[in-house]
Task: inverse folding
């Protein structure tokens, strides 16, 4: 979602950094390791990334990263903001700064969780903490269970970008950063005298990622945007559900997550061009929530252009792709069986005790199976109804047929694969104690990420660490800035 006002920023550290022998607030990476800090907001609108080491850094695909950057050499690691308009994140050799309380940015930052030695910061507008702290209906001990996960591993700071002093602080952070990510409505940074041109005056190498509902240009650019509308206008909502029924929404903020992932890809590509291909200067990475959804439409564009086909919802399967659908077991559970490829279909026929189906002219090719989809899937459905879900899963997987049950979150908790891959990790909330949260994706062989801490609840809780450690502000200066409404 996009806001006009400043947002919260948090900072997170995934790996333990080693304090420099000469300066308490300096961090020196171990040999051959990419250290750096990630500063990312939990719902901020702006992110700036500070310098990193000469090592590859990969962002994790989940959460909202508002900014990421890579510097050619080792720099001091300094923190940045929490409390809404801006966030700084350093991961591996990358440092990010972010602002705005948009979910897409949270996704971007969580994508950076898998980065080596990552530290992230998120920013809140003073007196206006990131609303994600209160989002979601589920409450435990009076607290939302969404915020602790989306903002884990982040330090929270406050910064008011409407104030000139707040703008100066952001420029000081940008000067040392690789990437700045913002999720404000287009034109907001310009109104605050923080347009890309001014940011590049402070740091010509800065990569600026701008996430919005419709992009920075075009007739819809000024509009506010939410994932729900972006999914609708991007075309993915219309093809969801069943024909002649209202198009339903998947029960997550898919558009935000997609935008965060595309932003991460764009940032990494811009950094690669800058550092590995001799580009030298930074550039703008313009990401639209609507376009992130549109990018998933596969062949629908040429299908309409050349054939006038308007693809509609297909229910539980894909029209013309068979057998690939959900089938109910004898114990009333749903199982996905995907055997539309020729060889896999042959294995399915053998596993069902119907090997002759693989040579039947109605089903012998992919096109033939698509033309006779209802009849074929009726045969598979009849077979599945005679067996339990566990039996279907065992028999078909043993035969090399792609198959799996439709899980609830309760099923996931019981599945040994999720446990073996550390996808249910213990977090410790500072107020209500231990709870399980999702694991980290992707997995790194040499520099695995980890959950350093659950999100903090107090806005600006790391102002001292970030502004004192990164920018060298004294306690007296921090107190003055707070009294002035800057922090």
Result:
């Amino acid at each position: 979602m996009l806001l006009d006002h400043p947002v919260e920023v948090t900072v997170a550290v995934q790996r333990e950094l080693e304090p420099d022998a000469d300066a308490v607030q300096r961090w020196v990476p171990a040999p051959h390791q990419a250290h750096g800090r990630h500063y990312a907001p939990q719902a901020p609108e702006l992110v700036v990334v500070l310098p990193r080491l000469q090592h590859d850094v990969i962002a994790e695909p989940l959460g909202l990263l508002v900014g990421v950057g890579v510097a050619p050499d080792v720099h001091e690691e300094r923190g940045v903001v929490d409390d809404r308009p801006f966030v700084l994140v350093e991961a591996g050799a990358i440092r990010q700064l972010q602002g705005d309380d948009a979910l897409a940015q949270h996704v971007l930052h969580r994508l950076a969780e898998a980065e080596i030695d990552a530290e992230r910061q998120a920013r809140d507008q003073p007196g206006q903490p990131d609303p994600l702290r209160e989002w979601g209906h589920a409450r435990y001990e009076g607290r939302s269970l969404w915020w602790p996960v989306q903002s884990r591993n982040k330090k929270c700071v406050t910064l008011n970008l409407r104030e000139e002093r707040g703008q100066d602080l952001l420029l000081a952070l940008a000067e040392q950063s690789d990437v700045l990510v913002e999720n404000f409505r287009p034109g907001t940074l310009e109104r605050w005298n923080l347009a890309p041109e001014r940011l590049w005056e402070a740091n010509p190498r800065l990569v600026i990622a701008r996430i919005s509902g419709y992009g920075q240009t075009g007739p819809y650019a000024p509009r506010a945007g939410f994932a729900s509308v972006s999914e609708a206008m991007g075309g993915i909502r219309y093809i969801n559900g069943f024909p002649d029924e209202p198009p339903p929404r998947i029960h997550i903020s898919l558009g935000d997550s997609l935008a965060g992932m595309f932003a991460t890809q764009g940032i990494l590509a811009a950094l690669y061009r800058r550092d590995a291909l001799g580009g030298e200067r930074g550039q703008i990475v313009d990401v639209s929530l609507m376009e992130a959804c549109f990018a998933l439409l596969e062949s629908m564009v040429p299908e309409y252009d050349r054939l006038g086909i308007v693809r509609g919802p297909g229910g539980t399967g894909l029209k013309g792709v068979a057998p690939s659908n959900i089938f109910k077991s004898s114990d009333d559970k749903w199982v996905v069986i995907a055997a539309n490829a020729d060889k896999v279909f042959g294995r399915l026929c053998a596993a069902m005790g119907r090997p002759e189906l693989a040579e039947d002219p109605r089903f012998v090719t992919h096109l033939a199976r698509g033309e006779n989809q209802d009849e074929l899937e009726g045969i598979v459905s009849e077979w599945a109804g005679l067996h339990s879900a566990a039996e279907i899963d065992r028999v078909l997987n043993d035969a090399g047929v792609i198959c799996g049950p439709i899980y609830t979150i309760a099923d996931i908790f019981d599945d040994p694969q999720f446990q073996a891959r550390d996808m249910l990790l213990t977090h410790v909330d500072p107020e209500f104690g231990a709870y399980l949260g999702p694991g980290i994706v992707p997995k790194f062989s040499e520099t695995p990420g980890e959950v350093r801490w659950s999100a903090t609840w107090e806005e600006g809780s790391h102002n001292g660490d970030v502004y004192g450690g990164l920018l060298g502000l004294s306690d007296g200066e921090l107190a003055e800035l707070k009294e002035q409404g800057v922090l």
